[in-house]
Write a structure and sequence with these properties.
CATH superfamily of the largest domain: Vaccinia Virus protein VP39
Largest sheet: 9 strands, mixed
CATH architecture of the largest domain: 3-Layer(aba) Sandwich
Radius of gyration: 23 Å
Structural class: alpha/beta
Number of domains: 2
CATH class of the largest domain: Alpha Beta
Length: about 325
């Protein structure tokens, strides 16, 4: 289990899936009475699924299966059965199947064929069950995502934590971004092209799940914004927004990026970059902070480093309330 996947619930049990993510996924399978949880591990998703449905929990690792049994007893789950088996050998006589394939460590890109079982086998399950959900990593390459399913990326704590593929009756759109714990959701919709224009009075930094889901145009239309660059995920508008899908900044000024000029601007106006973010910009924020060498006693602002028409620029902003 990777350290970044761990959390501890109220009983101190170590889980492989964030609790609010597991409960959300169980909610998406809320109409299923009998679910097969393949590669159940120590039960991170099982504990949420087992509170609402009969679950067959399957894993080839008997040690992990024993831990899942213990965790289900702590939560007093009455409708869970455990099977030690290779998941590819099973018959699927259930309402729905949920699969959390193992991701092999050491891969630079977590390719779908490097999962265990591989995504090619998992996707083939759609011919055998009417409802199929598959957990995938947020960094899975775009070309590994099947074209005939719903692809959802989930944000929790402001980070894109994981993705999921939904097949058959569970699929309700083609792309979706969901923010937890509020369950705000954004999905694919048709609409006019979003224009590209210079910054307005406000700049918006979309939630990572929106960016990963390739729903930037849908978000821009929803909040009445435009793009700053065709390839960069910053949006702008002359009107403020309270959308939960963005972090909002009021633009103080923007200028072509030149280190000496930026340092002089910040000094002249008594500004201090409490936050430095970048998209499509060659310099890393810690390096810029070091090279600016400014005392931390000025008015706190945010620097957004990006590019407009292939030229590096800096947006000097104040973060808004949302």
């Amino acid at each position: 289990m990777r350290a970044e996947e761990m959390f501890f619930d109220r009983e101190g049990l170590e889980m492989a899936t964030r609790e609010e993510v597991a409960h959300y996924r169980a909610w998406r399978l809320r109409d299923c009475e009998k679910i097969m949880d393949l590669c159940c591990g120590i039960g991170g998703d099982l504990l949420a699924l087992g509170q609402q449905a009969e679950v067959l929990a399957v894993d080839a690792d008997r040690r992990r299966l024993t831990m899942a049994q213990h965790n289900s007893q702590v939560y007093d789950l009455q409708k869970v059965r455990f099977i030690a088996a290779e998941v590819q050998s099973l018959r699927m006589n259930v309402d729905a199947v949920f699969v959390d394939p193992a991701r092999r460590s050491g891969q630079r890109k977590r390719r779908g064929e490097g999962y265990s079982p591989p995504l090619s086998w998992v996707a083939d399950l759609r011919t055998k069950v009417s409802r199929l959900a598959v957990k995938v990593g947020p960094a899975i390459p775009e070309e590994d995502l099947p074209p005939d399913c719903e692809v959802e990326f989930i944000s929790s704590g402001g980070q894109c934590r994981e993705g999921a593929l939904y097949f058959g009756q569970l699929a309700t759109t083609s792309r979706r971004a969901t923010l937890l714990p509020e369950r705000h959701t954004l999905e694919t919709t048709a609409g006019p092209d979003v224009v590209v224009a210079p910054p307005g009075a406000y700049v918006f930094d979309p939630n990572p799940a929106v960016v990963r889901s390739h729903l930037l145009d849908e978000l821009a239309r929803k909040i009445g914004a435009w793009k700053l660059d065709p390839q960069i995920a910053y949006l702008s508008s002359d009107a403020a927004t309270d959308s939960p899908f963005v972090r909002s900044y009021r633009l103080i000024r923007w200028q072509p990026f030149q280190l000496k000029r930026l340092r002089q601007t910040l000094r002249d106006e008594g500004l201090y970059p409490r936050e430095i973010k970048k998209r499509g910009f060659p310099m890393e924020p810690p390096e810029l902070r070091r090279r600016l060498s400014l005392p931390p006693d000025g008015r706190p602002i945010t620097l957004l480093l990006t590019r407009l028409r292939q030229k590096p620029v800096v947006l000097i902003c104040e973060m808004q309330g949302n």
